[in-house]
Amino acid sequence: MSRLLYLLFLYSYRVAIFIASFFNRKAGLWRSGRKHLLQRLEEALGGNKAPVIWVHCASLGEFEQGRTILETLKKEYPDFRVLLTFFSPSGYEIRKNYANADWVFYLPLDTPYNARRFVQIVKPSLALFVKYEYWYHLLQALKKTGTPTLLVSALFRENAIFFKPYGSFHRKMLRCFTHIFVQDMASKSRLAAIIPAEQVTVAGDTRFDRVVQIAAEFTPIPLIETFINQKSFVIVAGSTWPDDERHLASYLKVKNNNTSLIIAPHEINKEHIDEILSRFPGAQLFSKLKEEPLLKGDVLIIDNIGMLSRLYYYAAITYIGGGFNKAGIHNTLEAAVFFKPVIFGPNYQKFAEAKTLIKNGGATSYSNEGQLVEIIETLKNNLPVRETSGRSAGRFVAENTGATAIISGYIRENLR
């Protein structure tokens, strides 16, 4: 019965995407990217004789989470070829030309036929799923072929469906994994009734390794350096949504002395960019900086993707968006790795790293505009407080690296 409901959901989802594709760009990309997908996959991999490592990520965030593992395996196993798949256009469209993968494709819809054909075509020697991806028929197909299948950087919350009386169908998916690498001991404890202890390892979160790698490979952004030249106090706000931008605009109206703001919004479609421009009169777009490199304004809007992780380097303090959305805040570690104080909205409870940053003094959460003004002014006008908070944030990241080494070590020792 559960499998039938699962299939009904998948087919309903496909119909919904088909309808939405006529007026929603992402839905259109999802649909067009899967046209003749298995045929294109067969054409691409048909003549391949090398063993294949298959890495699957839901979207861009999961890709960044699994990236250090992928790149380590690519380096350690040069005779293997790498297939990278995405479920979401947000990941595929940005990383479809990723240099460390031999092939990048969308994941086919998880029907029994698609799953069987996909595994027959790819013949993976190793399959890695990052964090949250569970596809019943694909996992069953991998299990039947004896393919070593790993789940990495997984996190299992107490209220997850796996632990419900009606979660038997989902528990079957977990039992398809050869080994599961979880972020914390709580997750391992929750899995104890489902998965044998020897098949679960507490490895930590590979995002720590990734942000440390980004910081180590930092390269300057000359136009940003031109913009912040002689500006005394710079706030970098990343992955912002309208609520975040409204609060930041209110702050600048109340306290606009010697403060500059760089905003990298989560969505950079024209409608959102225009909305930000109207909220911050006199703001400049990054795309226009080449035309006006000596911009005198105090607000810069980043209208591209891929620069954010380096922008935090230039901040006095950082602001992470999403804290007023249902899904919650975005990546705090990208800012913390540069030893910068972090600020975000109230919806952070699902994120262990955010809670620990607050506990350690590396981050502060706020619920209203008055609180935001108070927090920024405290950090702005008290250098020792700001430096102490930044050190706490940076130390937290440095002390939690190593997940990539644990996972790649397991692969090295247990899989051929």
Map the helices and strands:
Blueprint: H1 2-20, H2 25-32, H3 37-45, E1 52-57, H4 60-76, E2 81-86, H5 89-95, E3 103-106, H6 112-122, E4 124-130, H7 136-144, E5 149-154, H8 168-174, E6 179-182, H9 185-191, E7 200-202, H10 206-216, H11 222-228, E8 233-240, H12 242-254, E9 259-265, H13 270-279, E10 284-285, E11 299-301, H14 308-311, E12 317-320, H15 333-336, E13 342-344, H16 352-360, E14 363-365, H17 369-381, H18 383-398, H19 403-414
Parallel strand pairs: 1-2, 1-4, 2-3, 4-5, 5-6, 6-7, 8-9, 8-12, 9-11, 10-11, 12-13, 13-14
Helix pairs in contact: 1-2, 3-6, 4-10, 4-19, 6-7, 12-13, 12-17
Describe this structure in words.
- The chain is α/β, with parallel strands linked by helices and 416 residues long.
- The chain has two domains: 2-205 and 401-414, Rossmann fold (3-Layer(aba) Sandwich), CATH 3.40.50; 219-398, Rossmann fold.
- It is built from 19 helices and 14 strands.
- The chain has a seven-stranded parallel β-sheet, with helices on both faces. The chain has a seven-stranded parallel β-sheet with strand order 10-11-9-8-12-13-14.
- Helix 3 packs parallel to helix 6 (112-122), helix 6 (112-122) crosses helix 7 (136-144) and helix 12 packs across helix 17 (369-381).
- The longest helix has 19 residues, at 2-20.
- It is globular.
- The mean pLDDT is 93.
